[in-house]
């Protein structure tokens, strides 16, 4: 493969990628609640969308950790005869 | 029109998570809170990742990562889905091809000086590049996704999966924590949340 051909291929594929990336970033816009709910979501820049995406993912992971925490505490303190225990039993035993 | 967790995803996640918790059942009664918490979180992660049946990079990476923390659990939870291959499969090592990057940088430098507009565009691209790098740090297996298009596709799928996980876990914990008079309310809400899609 000549170097000329390779550089032409690199630039044409990067044009295709730019379009794909623009489209994917607009999908991200719709996935992040903070941005989606903003009336003027289309004016949010690509880099802001990416930044908010990182933050959103971190928050989701943190929430999952927190929920695991709460559930494990519940298992510790729960009164076996309470309705709460029934919920957890059904979760664990079904 | 955005992607969001479907009722079948939530249903499947709950079933798989339940299975994981059942595997831990003997331990749950006899261990510390922190070990319990780890068991709950790991089961939730494997349940979430297994929804994708090995078809996405992030889910394979998450399964491998969880397997290093609890190999037994992962094997048990994935026994129907070729656990061995998922745990041992090498993730694609598609690192940046330095030669191509160096060559295209050389070509760019040879071009005539750019206009102000081109400068702004170049700065914007650089900023986007920096932010996509940030994504690689939060998406499992991100370090193997040198292709930005792949990275963002994986991110979109990962987000929907995380939303499913959090959605279901939140419903369960709310139901379990509610005072007795509200437990029925939350249970109803959980059922509705899963069927509602």
Automatic annotation (TrEMBL), chain A:
Q: Which PROSITE patterns match?
A: BHLH
What range(s) does the BHLH domain occupy? 5-60
Q: What is its subcellular localisation?
A: Nucleus
Cellular component (GO) terms are:
nucleus
Classification via Pfam families = bHLH_ILI (PF23174)
Offer one example of a GO biological process linked to this entry: regulation of DNA-templated transcription
CDD domains per UniProt: bHLH_AtPRE_like
Keyword Oxidoreductase among record annotations: no
Coiled coil segments of this chain:
50-77
Listed name of the protein: BHLH domain-containing protein
Which species is listed as the source? Answer: Brassica campestris (Field mustard)
UniProtKB/TrEMBL annotation, chain B:
- Subcellular localization(s) per the UniProt record: Nucleus
Q: Where does the IBH1-like N-terminal domain start and stop, copy by copy?
A: 7-68
- Tree of life domain: Eukaryota
Q: Which terms are listed as keywords in the entry?
A: Nucleus, Transcription, Transcription regulation
Report the principal subcellular site.
nucleus
Q: Name one Pfam family in it.
A: IBH1_N
The keyword Cytoplasm is annotated on this UniProt entry: no
Under the heading PANTHER family, the entry gives: TRANSCRIPTION FACTOR IBH1-LIKE 1
Q: What is this protein called?
A: IBH1-like N-terminal domain-containing protein
Organism name = Brassica napus (Rape)
């Amino acid at each position: 493969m000549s170097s000329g051909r390779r550089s032409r291929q690199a630039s044409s594929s990067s044009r295709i990628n730019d379009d794909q990336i623009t489209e994917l970033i607009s999908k991200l816009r719709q996935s992040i609640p903070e941005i989606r709910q903003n009336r003027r979501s289309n004016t949010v820049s690509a880099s802001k969308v990416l930044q908010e995406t990182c933050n959103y993912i971190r928050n989701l992971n943190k929430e999952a950790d927190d929920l695991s925490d709460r559930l494990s505490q519940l298992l510790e303190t729960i009164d076996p005869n309470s309705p709460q225990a029934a919920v957890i039993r059904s979760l664990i035993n079904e | 029109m955005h992607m969001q967790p479907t009722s079948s995803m939530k249903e499947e996640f709950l079933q798989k998570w339940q299975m994981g918790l059942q595997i831990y059942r003997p331990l749950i009664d006899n261990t510390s809170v922190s070990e319990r918490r780890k068991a709950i979180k790991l089961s939730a992660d494997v349940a979430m990742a297994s929804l994708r049946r090995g078809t996405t990079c992030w889910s394979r990476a998450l399964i491998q990562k969880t397997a290093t923390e609890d190999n037994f659990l992962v094997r048990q939870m994935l026994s129907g889905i070729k656990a061995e291959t998922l745990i041992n499969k090498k993730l694609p090592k598609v690192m940046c091809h330095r030669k191509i990057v160096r060559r295209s940088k050389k070509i760019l430098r040879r071009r005539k000086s750019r206009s102000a507009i081109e400068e702004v565009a170049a700065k914007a691209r650089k900023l986007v590049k920096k932010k996509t790098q940030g994504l690689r740090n939060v998406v499992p297996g991100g370090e193997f996704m040198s292709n930005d298009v792949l990275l963002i596709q994986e991110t979109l799928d990962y987000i929907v999966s995380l939303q499913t996980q959090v959605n279901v876990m939140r419903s369960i914990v709310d139901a379990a924590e509610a005072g007795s008079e509200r437990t029925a309310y939350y249970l109803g809400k959980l059922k509705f949340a899963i069927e509602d899609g």
